[in-house]
Amino acid sequence: MGVLYQILALLGSLALFLYGMMMLSESVQKIFGAGMRRFMTSMMSNRFKLVLTGLVITAIIQSSSATTVMAVNFVNTGLFSLSQAIGVILGANVGTTVTGWVISLFGMRSGVESFAIPLIALGFIFMMMKSAKKKSIGELIVSISFILLGICFLKQYVPSKEVWPGFARFITEWSGWGYGSILIFILLGGILSIAARSSSATLAITLVFAGTGWLPFDMSCAMVIGENIGTTVTANIAARGGNVSAKRAALTHTLFNVFGAVLTLLFFYPFLHFISWTVRICGGLDPFTSSAAAAAGSGSAMLGITCGISLFHTLFNLFNTIVMFFLVPSLEKIVVKLVPPGNEEEVYYLKYLQGGLLATPELSLAQVRQEIVRFCQLEKKQFGYVREALIKAETPEFDVLFKKLSHYEQIADRVEYEIAEYLNKIAESELGELAGRRMQSMYKIIGELESVGDSGYNIGRILQRKNLAEEVFTPEMQGKLFHMLDLLDAAFDAMIFNCSQGYESIKDINNASVTEQAINDYRDARRDEHMKNLENGVYGYQVGAYYFDIIAECERVGDFIINVSEALMDIKEEKR
Q1: At what angle do helices 199-211 and 179-196 cross, to 10 degrees?
Q2: Cα 329 versus chain centre, distance
Q3: How far apart are the C-alpha atoms of 452 and 429, rounded to whole Å?
Q4: Quick one: 433 and 482 in the same domain?
Q5: How many alpha carbons fall within 13 Å on the CB side of residue 102?
Q6: What is the model's pTM?
Q7: Residue 522 belongs to what domain range?
Q8: pLDDT digits (tens, 9 = 90+) for 122-172
Q9: Domain shared by 148 and 13, yes or no
Q10: In the chain, what's the furthest Cα-to-Cα distance?
Q11: Alpha-carbon distance 145 to 64, whole Å?
């Protein structure tokens, strides 16, 4: 029963630590989520800033997996290009090394629990407050307490070698096979990291077991290499449902750590001796000889070996990042070859606003206008998939098309947000009266275009509900829906033309007005016809409802489109 209790207590300590890490990451994202997102998108101008972004965010949320998944999601929705995501991923690998130093310098010290318990009381007080932000601050405080207590209990319940002599002999035997043992412990570290889905958690386990004398220094460092590789699985899982670029970004994370592992293994023991020398120069005990003393309870020996492991972890990621920093274009080419484009749409990302504000507000607004034209073209492309989804509504291909419609709706949300953020920055400058009116017009235009994206997704949902109800449109219904989409295509073309003309060159919006009137007239004709068909039993009520819902949604899109052109003319008329 004693052994069983010790095993359960050890697992419970590990669970407490893991829960604290999860809670810490979630609470920090609740408190600083919007700020981190703005920070990430504001640092896209060069590769060094992107690396710094990944480092800072990972150091704050204590999870390279969360940062990497965030970067992968940004690629999937078009906020980042592949090369930009690679920069963030490089920085995330350096940022995750902070965890090891916090555990080595503070978590492994005795007496930590004496102030961890009062922190829980303080955190609980904050969690009882009504303010959501204060609740999140309380969760943050409690999560830090859980992490410290988890490490404290791990040290307490890790048995001595005398208690488990068989397990001690097992580790000793597996540690005596030279490079074979190194590969075994790399594999063990990778498996643990995959199981825990956190390299920070498995690093903590490694530090605790090494600090209590169970793991020798060299095998602990081998486990760290495996943990870095294993943590890349999380990003690859997140990218499975994404587009090609998201999968490439996730694969980059894996290649980064595999490359670092291979490079480190070529110079493994010279590298470890350099770290040992560095620790001794700084006044610590030799990590190679600290294991036995740490097992006997020596605090200085424990500090020597854990600091040695943390230094190895830091230098492994730092050197790897420095090398890969200059090889980003080559790395990008490699992942492009390894993950060839399939039938998926290439990712959409902002083209004109990534370099930040230009010299004057007027020039910056000109960049926004170019991005708005691309936004218009994006929405026309989405409705090309609406047409295809209507054609293939009763086939297995519909699910793929529905995902594309959903994906484009998410992209529209992102593009609207990013353009609005850019306009907010312009608004901080001194604007002339005309520039201010143009900016307000642009706010309105991007809002209308985002609504077009919502409507494209809504039509996909209507078709999905129709399929679930096992209803089928008649050829006549399909033909009339296609005609409505033809009218929308003409409206899209007029909108794109007008936006391309700009405020100075546009003469009138008669082209947009004619197409919008045609859409309204066609909707009215179909509505009258629809009521008669229901009365005469030409088709059933349910399939008729789906049919006319699409007609009505298309008419709403026509309204959004004409609103864009009218926003352009509002400025033109005010100027006169």
Answers
A1: 130
A2: 21
A3: 30
A4: yes
A5: 17
A6: 0.58
A7: 361-575
A8: 988 988 888 877 888 888 888 888 887 887 787 777 766 555 555 556 566
A9: yes
A10: 94
A11: 21
